[in-house]
Amino acid sequence: MPLSNQIAVVTGGARGIGRAICLSLADQGATVIAADLNAEGLAETIKEAESRQLTGQIVARSLNVTDESAVEGFVELVVEEFGKIDILVNNAGITRDGLMMNMDDEQWDAVINVNLRSVFLMTRAISRHMVRARYGRIINLASVAGMMGNAGQANYAASKAGVIGFTKTVAKELGRRNITANAVAPGFIDTDMTRVLPDKVKEDVKQIIACRKMGTPEDIAAAVTYLASPSAGYVTGHVLVVDGGLNM
Ligand code: NAP
Questions:
Q1: Neighbours of 4 (CB within 10 A)
Q2: For residue 17, which atom of ligand 1 is closest to its CA?
């Protein structure tokens, strides 16, 4: 299998896109450490993995990706237990929507912390090990909102635009060490994050998507799994948009 003997860390692996990424990487042979705050969701991810004939395996670890010392401790423990980290998928993300003029500091800070600062914390801690190993695949979840903007999501769009700039910089800094860094920018994907939106909003968005439907977590997992694979070794600094033709 393409990812046999590979160790992957996926943040936000307890549900939605993160869970699909964990299952897809394990299906390709990887040992996946699903890191999340949500213990119940992680247990579901493990249960789902056990019900399938996966070549690899998924193990769950509790982690708040915004807690710097927890991130450092988590990375040291993973390296001690599994020997290395080949693949990092920064997927954990939140929304706290509201019009910019009414947005309070808490809404802004929470989203920037989880969606952007955590990507820096995780990447800094794990890339040190990747540099030593002269191998790494870093994949960050951005969003078309970070490319197009989105009314009601100034915090979210800014965090995701930040993720894109961060990813390109990491690609430039670490390329010579055989480490690639790419972003995947999903469009409108059917997960808990979008399920809370009113039906009218969902229908309106579908009308501006060329494929006229929402994407699935598996659509995003397939893109991430490609970028994590040895076949994508010459792809770096790229933003792979997976949006059914929303942003074009
Ligand atoms: P989701 O269903 O809301 O799942 C997000 C996961 O991240 C949850 O398990 C959540 O745990 C976890 N998480 C949140 N804060 C965390 C923290 N501080 N530490 C550790 N884990 C944390 O989201 P999704 O729709 O799968 O989205 C996954 C990624 O894709 C996000 O980065 C999102 O911005 C991006 N994205 C999604 C869409 C979409 O349409 N769904 C579109 C574009 C981009 P809890 O259960 O404890 O909250």
A1: 11
A2: 26
Comparing 24-28, 60-64, 145-149, 195-199, which segment has the lowest mean pLDDT?
A: 195-199
Rounded to the nearest whole angstrom, what is the distance from the C-alpha of residue 176 to the centroid of ligand 1?
31
Q: Is the model's pTM score more than 0.90?
A: yes
Number of the ligand 1 atom closest to the C-alpha atom of 92: 7
Q: Is the CB of 17 under 6 A from ligand 1?
A: yes
CB-based contact 25:55 (threshold 8 Å): no
How is residue 239 annotated by DSSP? E
User: Where on the phi/psi map is residue 149: left (φ > 0), alpha (ψ -120 to 50), or beta?
Assistant: left
Q: How far is the CA of 193 from the centre of ligand 1 (A)?
A: 7
Q: How confident is the model at residue 194 (pLDDT cuts 50, 70, 90)?
A: very high
How is 184-203 classified by DSSP, letter by letter? Answer: EEE-SB-SHHHHTS-HHHHH
Place of tokens 């078309």: 144
Q: What mean pLDDT do residues 221-248 have?
A: 97
Enzyme catalytic residues: 156
Is-contact 150 195, C-beta < 8 A? no
**Distance (Å, rounded) from C-alpha 133 to C-alpha 82?**
13
Instruction: Indicate if ligand 1 lies below 6 Å from the C-beta of 110.
Output: no
Mean pLDDT of 7-25: 98
Percent of the chain with pLDDT over 90: 99
User: What is the Å distance from ligand 1's center to 92 Cα?
Assistant: 4
Mean pLDDT of 78-90: 98
